[in-house]
Automatic annotation (TrEMBL):
It comes from the Bacteria. It comes from Ohessyouella blattaphilus. This is AraC family transcriptional regulator. It holds the Pfam family HTH_18. PANTHER family: ARAC-FAMILY TRANSCRIPTIONAL REGULATOR, RIGHT ORIGIN-BINDING PROTEIN.
Length: 277
């Protein structure tokens, strides 16, 4: 297995176990490789040490938990990620430039600055408006061809077109185009956001880049509009609908499923999907 695939597998494992003990020994035991080799290739592929990556992802995910669980105390959320109360506040403030209590007091919000266009303010709909369009669906497992990108989500449109052009011989009327996203760009550093661009392929297709998108229960919101406005809609679902919905987000990636893409108009028809339990 090549080193990029090993690192990607480790990232998948880390993102699904952020509130578990994620020592180097734990991670390499899951991968069955040497911790010295793994530490070296992880830094080589990501530009970041495994310790720094896990610490950053824990704090980012804890901020999402504060956003989605307003009834939960900051102390309990910190404990979920292995921090004492005072240590959690210190690490959180160092990473996100605000204390967890100040962050919580700023929620919920009806609008925010776009992380992609800071001078642009995005405005959210009401819980009732989101709820009128959201459905809960059961998804089957989906084998896909994937490419991972770590960087600014604003580059996803360009990355998608390059991916589709490179694999155009695999496209058919039955192809499903799926994007996995692991970060909230209003919280995570924009240059460190993780995403996977994926497509279903014929059954006889073999590649080292084939992966399985796990099924389960998802909320599905139909979106039709410009690519630049996807962030506004997703943030509205996260900030307004989900905390009031009674559902709990499962700790893994979200999905964007594309049905139509108009390159010239930068317009899409798609489903925005969040895993729940």
């Amino acid at each position: 297995m090549n080193k990029e695939k090993l690192v990607n597998q480790s990232i998948n494992y880390i993102m699904e176990h952020l509130n578990d003990d994620l020592s180097l020994d734990t991670i390499v035991a899951h991968l069955y490789i040497s911790k010295f080799y793994f530490s070296r290739i992880f830094k080589e592929v990501t530009g970041e040490s495994i310790y720094s990556f896990v610490k950053r992802c824990k704090i980012d995910q804890s901020a999402i938990d504060i956003k989605l669980n307003p009834e939960k105390t900051i102390t309990d959320i910190g404990l979920d990620y292995g921090y004492s109360s005072s240590n959690y506040s210190t690490v959180f403030k160092k990473k996100l430039k605000t204390s967890p209590s100040t962050f919580k007091e700023s929620l919920p919000v009806q609008s925010m600055s776009s992380p992609f266009i800071p001078e642009q303010t995005v405005h959210f709909k009401s819980y009732e408006e989101y709820n009128a369009l959201i459905e809960v669906q059961e998804f089957d497992d989906l084998p896909v061809l994937c490419e991972r990108f770590i960087g600014n989500y604003i580059d996803l449109e360009k990355n998608w077109y390059q991916f589709l052009d490179k694999n155009k011989n695999l496209l058919s009327a039955e192809t499903i185009l799926v994007e996995r996203f692991f970060n909230d760009p209003s919280i995570s550093n924009s240059s460190q956001c993780i995403s996977d661009i994926c497509m279903t392929v014929p059954n006889d297709y073999n590649s080292d880049n084939l992966e399985l998108i796990e099924g389960g229960k998802w909320i599905v919101y139909p979106y039709t509009g410009e690519i630049k406005n996807i962030f506004e809609t997703l943030q509205g679902i996260f900030s307004i609908w989900l905390p009031q919905s009674g559902y709990t987000m499962e700790q893994r990636y979200g999905l964007n499923i594309y049905h139509q893409i108009d390159r010239d108009c930068h317009h899409v028809v798609m489903d925005l999907c969040i895993p729940i339990k």
